[in-house]
Amino acid sequence: MRTALIGLGNAGHTLHLPALAGIPTATVVGTCDLDPERRARAAKRWKVPVFAEFDAMLEAARPEVVIVATPPDTHAEYCQRSLAAGAHVICEKPFVSSVEEADRVIAAAAAAGLQVALNHPFREMPIFRALRDAARPEEIVFVQVWQLMDLPPWAEPGWRAQMLQRTLYEAGVHLVDYVMALFAEKPVAVSATISSCGVRETHSDSVALATLEFSRGRLAHILQNRLCKGETQYFEVRAETAGASLRASFGGRARLTAGLHRSVRPHLRLDFGVAGMAWSE
């Protein structure tokens, strides 16, 4: 599969190019970035063709698939230009900046007989897949998903620091996507609140709270707290069924705890996971 990549920043250089290098059937026929240092880095590390201009790459490389890994406000344009050149698209999250842009990209793909895929990997990661496999969507009655870290929007590196009211949109989209995968349906109602909680005059979603209602009155609650001075928890999930409380936690850990479990019975527990853990309580 002839594959091209637009955007050689963090996602392009450290995620997509290594992944492509491990796929025998994928051939990187072109990469593109405005930054000459990034182009030089990619050419040296991955031995791939580099281009400064997107259209020049499309014309010379003739890719069958284009991966769009640029900042999100450029996604719609690059998706549409890729489709016009006859290439399928794999787009980094978040997809585009508005519903109207999404409709245009999807319509362009349909008209060209091509496909657009989004990079939402968490639903298929082993620990999160294990939780999905442990309960059928109709069995889930309530879900909590949370992300805690000391990284307010204005402290983000690069272009993310300009998105003061889009933390849920940029990073939280993983949480939203996973909740929808658990229920295997779209929500029927959504409510949300964002706030900088008084730590900064500029309004931002340093803290985001969202409630999603699904069929039969079932609920999911999403919390993003970027003001947390405690332990970082990048992606935590609790899914309740009628008979079990299912948990998943992203990130390596090694922890030994001892004491009373819910102040009822003593326990001794060793938690160890290289990339995370999934368990039932």
Summarize, please:
The protein has 281 residues and is α/β, with parallel strands linked by helices. Helix content is 28%, strand content 32%.
How would you sum up the major sheet?
7 strands, mixed
Contiguous uncertain segments of 5+ residues: none
Structural class: alpha/beta
User: Could you estimate the helical fraction of the residues in percent?
Assistant: 25-40%
Distance between the termini: 44 Å
Q: CATH topology of the largest domain, which one? A: Dihydrodipicolinate Reductase, domain 2
Strand order of the largest sheet: 8-9-10-7-11-12-15
What does the model show?
Helix 4 (75-84) packs parallel to helix 5. The chain has 281 residues and is α/β, with parallel strands linked by helices. It has helices spanning 10-21, 36-46, 54-61, 75-84, 99-112, 126-134, 167-170, 173-183; strands at residues 2-6, 27-32, 50-51, 65-68, 88-91, 116-118, 142-148, 189-195, 207-213, 219-225, 233-240, 245-250, 253-261, 265-273, 276-280. The strands form three sheets. Strands 8-9-10-7-11-12-15 form a seven-stranded mixed sheet, covered by helices on one side. A six-stranded parallel sheet has the order 3-2-1-4-5-6, sandwiched between helices. Strand 5 (88-91), helix 5 and strand 6 (116-118) form a beta-alpha-beta unit. The protein folds into two domains: 2-118, NAD(P)-binding Rossmann-like Domain (Rossmann fold, 3-Layer(aba) Sandwich), CATH 3.40.50; 122-280, Dihydrodipicolinate Reductase, domain 2, CATH 3.30.360.10. 28% of the residues lie in helices and 32% in strands. It contains eight helices and 15 strands.
